[in-house]
Model the fold of this input.
Amino acid sequence: MKKKFLALAMATSLVAGCLAGCGSDNKDNTTAADSASSSGGADQAAVDNLIAATDGTVSLTVWASEEDQDFTQGLIDNFVKEYPDITFDIQLGACSEADAKDTVLTDIEAAADVFTFADDQMNELVNAGALQEVVSTYTYDVKGESLSGAVEAASMNGKLYAYPMTADNGYFLYYDKSVFSDSDVETLDKMLEVADAAGKQVAMEVSGAWYNYSFFKGAGYDVTLNEDGVTNSCTWNADGATDVAQAIIDIGKSNAFLNAPDADLVTGVTEGKVAAAVSGTWNADTIKGAWGDNYAATKLPTYTVAGKQVQMASFSGYKLIGVNSHSKNIGWAMILAEYLTNEENQVARFNARSLGPANAKAAASDDVQSNPAIAALAKQADYAVPQRVGGNYWEPANTLGLTLISGNPEGTDLQTLLDNAVEGITAPVQ
Done:
């Protein structure tokens, strides 16, 4: 799903604009930024003081994804109009949220003053000293007005380092109402029973590490990123975890279950074979087009582990806006970051681009709640955890998921399978 919109070579030309902005001669500095509210709320006096302390042109560079260029430029234009007494030179460049970390860390001082990034890059950006801590606010209470999961995703060691922008990169359950009732989709067992009777299938990529996390985390077994920011801790082989492994094997035995990577899942839906699917918002339009008035979505179901119903968990994903700690215009960069992520503009972003808001009031608005996929993601949020895993997680978890959903074809002892997976997941980074 990730696309690269800015090569590092292009980043060099973009950051040149940032250097020009960072070198502008005005009095907006860290001291001015610190004059903002430390209580978390709006502080008009601090804004007024910053305006009074600003001489000359305020130059800032902003990086947003290529898809977000037109929308972001519109917000920047509106931001400039908000402060007619200030002369701004705000340059917008393209950098995908997926690549922001690598681009910023190439040369932090030359990177954009304000940039969007995916929340799983938080630890490395903070450890590198690239992000300005959100210790003060000017126009709204960033922590108090954002969804709790978004605040967690934007924080490290209890400190807020970014401004939550969207809350829409996660997974949940789509279902065809002509096949399943609202009560059917509460448990995976019932769904498989109903789907089998209807000659349909329930699809999920259990062979994918992003998704099979759902089963283990739901049952209380976790994988977490260590303080070093690169290695993992994992309890997937702890006492009782073999029951989770067996549950996945049992699910895979059903003719009504389809282990389906994204492309296969979409094909199954469009061909009428798949009547329920675990996926994310990126497939909403396709699935809605296939099911029409029967299109519905909700949180993930429960599944059976050792005779008990367990709620399936999920990874959650957020897009954040960071302020470069090396910006020479920290105060104005922070105000701009607040403007790009305030309630009004998160609603506008949803209306323009169908991106789920991270602002709590925006997420609860009628417009957002009337979108089944975004509303389902919000329901799943109570059982979702920000993705915080090191690179050694993915391959061992992929292998384990494929082995289990395929029925453990070599008959390997389940504890051995889990021990081997955990050994790989927690291996030192070379």
In short: The radius of gyration is 23 Å. The chain has two domains: 8-168+318-377, 172-316+390-425. Residues 1-27 have pLDDT under 50 and may be disordered.
